[in-house]
Write a structure and sequence with these properties.
Blueprint (H helix, E strand, L loop, with lengths): L26 E3 L3 E5 L11 E3 L1 E3 L31 E4 L18 E3 L4 E4 L5 E11 L2 E12 L7 E2 L5 E7 L10 E6 L6 E9 L2 H4 L23 E5 L4 E10 L26 H6 L3 E2 L13 H8 L11 E9 L7 E5 L5 H6 L3 E3 L14 E5 L6 E8 H4 L9 E4 L5 E4 L2 E2 L3 E4 L12 E7 L4 E8 L5 E11 L11 E8 L5 E2 L5 E5 L3 E9 L7 E5 L10 E12 L5 E11 L9 E10 L10 E16 L6 H7 L4 H7 L15 E3 L2 E4 L6 H7 L4 H6 L17 E4 L3 H12 L1
Parallel strand pairs: 2-9, 11-29, 31-37
Antiparallel strand pairs: 1-4, 3-7, 5-8, 6-7, 8-9, 10-12, 12-27, 13-28, 14-27, 15-17, 16-17, 18-20, 19-20, 21-26, 22-23, 24-25, 25-26, 28-29, 30-32, 32-35, 33-36, 34-35, 36-37, 37-38, 39-40
Helix pairs in contact: 6-7
């Protein structure tokens, strides 16, 4: 009912809309089972801990998420209340939607506001726990198991500074370059370890493309599983083999008299071991035969056969050598296979193997093509290879007789499954079909007691990604595991280069102006920024970049350390640039080469001013020379500079001298009137004032300054006429 006499009067209806509870529940990740040692207050050392990784699904950086509306659209909240930080706590029965009494949180678990969970337990066993992550009216519950073991000294240990690592990355750029992301776990008992991990995105868009996720073990045939698109998890090891190559040779001993057909060395193929020297210079080394010696690097082509193992031995074909490249910080080869027919190649490719494109039976009597294959998977790294010629070296067995082995294509050979020193047989005869002589390849994997992986990943979309991992004993009864270690990866789009502002630059005619133009971009070694002078607007005629662009790392912006690209610019303003003033702009463009990258450009400008009527004296300048530059005579220039006591005195370089009269425009002034008053011409005024080059006669503004070089005789006449 109407009240207070408001019946039939207009009214306004106001509503408030609460948008706080948007769909931005924090996304959280952890491994389904986290192992910690038994610990209780009073025990030696610090309480065991681990991290629960959680992020707001719509915030691309590590900044705290913000409220979209501040709660009500009509009344904005103070800036201090915009933030909606993530808050961690142990989940209660109410958080889980359960009645009181159906769930009791474990009292030995505490979680701080960094997601650091501390776990205290006196008894071994499995504990069901749940953590709540709350933000801006929304919550996420992450539940998992904690395994408590009474074997702290025997547990595997993850290498790294702490159990949480933060890594920044950018879409289209390899994460971790140049310092790679390494996952290393060691076992004090030297048991064989496997790596368990979960790797997924924490943003709405990223999580849909993060692969299957989940707990993933790493046997040989499950390489690179459960990773985001484009990610690979390679094995590494000290001195691991990271590449293999094959070369051919035609050594002199293969065609000496009474050994082979009488054909000159120069007319045979592969003379001089082509490609061998190039591989040697790149760090590759041949696999040697037992007892081989005499290799001379300076005469590699003529001595390689003395030491390198010939895989084509006894076939009458070319000498075939196997080369290996070793490295500690590169993806290692984890498996090797040999194919003896085209039918075997498809399945090997499907399993991720790469073929070395050279036939091991080159020029032999065999109709078979033998190829070596390798794979860089998630299994143990291969750290050594050995070649065994059964006719020369025997079976390479540690003890007992060799076993009859069935190889591909029905080939049967006498070989040992294991060789001395921990080598294992690659099941194939490398001389299959070419000779009764059997040649076998053995490989040795990295020793037990350590699992070492390297992440290779070029992100395809921005977001937060969490990689949590642990090393677990594979063959023991207890199967002890390290406490999980997590890597929080913040992946952003590559923004355009950011200009670093400069203060206003002021110079004189005749003085070389040198200044630095710098743009800041992401701190990735693969990012390239090109800087050019803008083609539109004001330009510095004759300006040039000196030297090559320089790169440095600096602390700017919210992303911390960034990479600066800078160039030095030189410009010499000659006599026509007096009165030049304005913004000169430069354009920076970053590198868009590569998938998921895009070219971004940005613009930065600097204010440049050249003083009027001022000349910076050059070496060997005289008053006559200076006067000629400005279309006057030396008497006038001497008149403008009373501190120059004698016109014949040498002008010291760097001295600033006046070249004319600095005049301030008065009401009703025009270029023609000023020219007549000072006995000069409009053309001469324009030549001495850069900003008046295209000015019309009546465009002068009151208070504007201009440089005028008067004619003394004409000025005297005007003065006399005014007085008379």
């Amino acid at each position: 009912p109407a009240a207070g006499g408001n019946a039939k009067k207009p009214y306004r209806l106001e509503t408030t809309v609460d948008l706080t509870d948007r769909d931005n529940s924090p996304s959280s990740r952890t491994m389904p089972i986290v192992t910690v040692p038994k610990w209780w207050p009073g025990d030696v050392g610090a309480a065991p801990h681990f991290y629960v990784i959680a992020k707001d699904q719509y915030t691309p950086s590590r900044d705290a998420p913000l409220r979209i509306s501040g709660g009500v659209t009509n009344y904005p909240l103070p800036e201090a209340e915009w933030a909606a930080p993530l808050m961690y706590s142990v989940a209660t029965a109410a958080d889980l939607g359960l009645p009181m009494g159906q769930y009791t949180p474990y009292t030995g678990l505490t979680v701080d506001q960094m997601g650091r969970a501390q776990f205290q337990a006196q008894q071994e066993g499995y504990y069901q726990v749940a953590v709540k992550v709350f933000s801006n009216g929304t919550k996420t519950i992450v539940d998992f198991m904690v395994r408590v073991v009474d074997a702290a000294p025997s547990m595997p240990v993850a290498a790294g500074a702490g159990l949480l690592e933060e890594v920044d990355g950018w879409v289209g750029f390899k994460v971790g370059a140049p310092a790679m992301i390494n996952l290393v776990v060691t076992d004090p008992q030297m048991d064989r370890l496997v790596l368990n991990y979960v790797f997924s995105g924490l943003r709405v868009a990223a999580s849909t493309a993060a692969g299957g996720g989940g707990l993933v073990y790493s046997p040989m045939e499950l390489s690179h599983q459960g990773l985001p698109p484009g990610a690979l998890l390679y094995s590494t090891a000290e001195g691991a083999i990271v590449d293999v190559q094959v070369t051919y040779d035609n050594p002199y001993v293969s065609h000496r008299p009474q050994h082979d057909a009488a054909v000159s060395k120069q007319n045979r193929e592969y003379v001089g071991a082509p490609g061998a020297k190039e591989l040697w210079d790149r760090g590759y080394r041949p696999v040697n035969k037992t007892g081989g010696s005499g290799l001379n690097v300076d005469a590699l082509a003529d001595t390689l056969y003395k030491q390198a193992f010939n895989l084509n031995s006894g076939t009458g074909g070319a000498s075939v050598y196997l080369w290996v490249l070793r490295a500690t910080d590169q993806p290692a080869i984890t498996e090797m296979e040999v194919s003896t027919s085209a039918a075997q190649e498809g399945p090997l490719r499907a399993r991720g193997f790469v073929r070395v494109d050279r036939d091991l039976n080159e020029q032999s009597s065999s109709m078979k093509m033998i190829h070596l294959w390798y794979k860089k998977g998630s299994g143990p790294a291969i750290v050594d290879v050995s070649l065994v010629d059964v006719a020369v070296e025997g079976q390479c067995c540690p003890a007992g007789a060799p076993e009859m082995a069935m190889f591909a294509d029905g080939d049967v050979g006498m070989a040992c499954a294991n060789c001395t020193g921990g080598f294992n047989l690659v099941p194939a005869n490398l001389n299959y079909g070419a000779s009764m002589n059997k040649i076998f390849l053995y490989v040795k994997h990295s020793p037990a007691g350590m699992v070492s992986k390297q992440l290779s990943w070029v992100p395809q979309m921005p977001g937060h990604y969490a990689l949590c991992y642990a090393g677990q004993e594979a063959d023991t009864v207890m199967k002890l595991s390290s406490t999980q270690r997590c890597i929080d990866m913040s992946i952003r789009d590559d923004a355009a280069p950011m200009f670093q502002p400069l203060s206003n630059l002021t110079t004189y005619m005749g003085k070389l102006l040198t200044f630095k133009i710098a743009f800041v971009d992401i701190r990735h070694n693969d990012e390239r920024v090109t800087i050019t002078q803008a083609s539109d607007g004001l330009t510095l005629e004759g300006a040039r970049f000196t030297g090559s662009p320089t790169h440095s790392v600096m602390d700017v912006g919210m992303n911390g350390m960034e990479r600066e690209t800078s160039v030095m610019v030189e410009w010499f303003p000659d006599s026509k640039y007096g009165g030049f003033s304005g913004h000169v702009c430069f354009v920076a463009e970053d590198d868009g080469m590569g998938p998921y990258r895009h070219v971004d450009t940005s613009r930065g400008c600097v204010s440049v001013t050249v003083e009027r009527c001022k000349w910076w004296v050059q070496t060997e300048d005289t008053l006559v020379q200076v006067a000629a530059r400005f279309g006057t005579n030396w008497l006038q220039v001497w008149h403008f500079n009373p501190t120059i006591l004698h016109p014949d005195n040498a002008l010291p370089p760097g001295l600033i001298i006046n070249t004319g009269h600095l005049y301030m425009v008065e009401p009703s002034d025009a270029l023609s009137a000023v020219a007549e008053r000072f006995g000069t011409s409009i053309t001469h005024i324009r030549a001495n004032n850069w900003d008046m080059g295209g000015m019309s006669d009546n465009a002068l503004m009151v208070g504007q300054h201009m440089c005028v070089v008067p004619s003394s005789c004409a000025t005297a006449v005007n003065v006399q006429r005014t007085v008379g």
